Amino acid sequence: MFGRGGRGTRRTKRDAEYPPQHGSPVSTGGGSPMPVGPPVPADCAVRLEAVAKAYGRGSSAVHALRGIDLVIPRATFTAVMGPSGSGKSTFLHCAAGLDRPDAGRVLLGADDLTAMKENQLTRLRRTRLGFVFQAFNLLPSLTVEKNVLLPLRLAGQRPERGRAAEVLAMVGLDRHTRRRPAQLSGGQQQRVAIARALVTRPDVLFADEPTGALDTTTAAEVLALLRRAVDDTGATVVMVTHDPVAASYADRVVFLAEGNLAGELYRPTPEAIAARMVDLSQGNTRQRQAA
């Protein structure tokens, strides 16, 4: 049910439809700069335009993101990787409307998150975004079913038990609806968290190190679930991870280094991802030594 062989060939088609995007402008010799690469696809789930974020001020400021331009198409699985301090978590927080960039824009579909007030962002996160974190963040006093239905309640929507049953069946836990989190394994709890993230049919599911607390076998099951959510239901998944094997489940891996985009890989393999990460880490070391 959860084997990696079930990923199928749809990724190849998706790669053909959405070649790598390049945000750096190229001078046309006098006129306005012309973007490199194909135009932004019409079915864009998330778009970052010149997004910058720094913490602190003056010479001690830490520039977490330095003018990121990136398009994430709908119904795709994107992994975000980079060395420690590369800006991965800040990228996710800004893309998901959890933090505001200092400059640039973040768009969810056609909606500009950076122009919204905090109460508008809260409503949007409750209805159009799903989140899965390394810590499962389940409420221990609630049953599995009630944990899954919680986003609907918070959004002021009618809690549909049929919808809870549907997403729990998707993650293989439809027989555990009345159990509480303490009665489940770590892998089962993360699968409940995925069901909870999918229950509102979000535009985008953001996952931050979703397998960081799991053993290898259980991690593979969770990653296969995310893969199936894209392939079978048309979900859009954006996952931050440090694990090349986890990232290989994605359609595309986006690399960050020192707050900048540092390349992309399509149809990634663990070996290719690991090699790119070694190059980035060595590059960071050389920069620090030169400074």
UniProtKB/TrEMBL annotation:
UniProt-listed PROSITE patterns: ABC_TRANSPORTER_1 (PS00211), ABC_TRANSPORTER_2 (PS50893)
UniProt region (Disordered), positions on chain: 1-38
Superkingdom of this protein's organism: Bacteria
KW Nucleotide-binding (keyword) present: yes
CDD domains, sorted: ABC_MJ0796_LolCDE_FtsE
InterPro entries attached to this UniProt entry: AAA+_ATPase (IPR003593), ABC_transporter-like_ATP-bd (IPR003439), ABC_transporter-like_CS (IPR017871), ABC_transpr_LolD-like (IPR015854), MacB-like_ATP-bd (IPR017911), P-loop_NTPase (IPR027417)
Pfam family of the protein (one): ABC_tran
Keywords of this entry: ATP-binding, Nucleotide-binding, Transport
SUPFAM superfamilies in UniProt: P-loop containing nucleoside triphosphate hydrolases
Domain ABC transporter positions: 46-283
Gene3D superfamilies: P-loop containing nucleotide triphosphate hydrolases (3.40.50.300)
One term under GO cellular component: membrane protein complex
GO molecular function: ATP binding; ATP hydrolysis activity; transmembrane transporter activity
Matching PANTHER family: ABC TRANSPORTER RELATED, IMPORT ATP-BINDING PROTEIN
Protein name: ABC transporter ATP-binding protein
Upper taxonomic lineage: Bacteria, Bacillati, Actinomycetota, Actinomycetes, Kitasatosporales
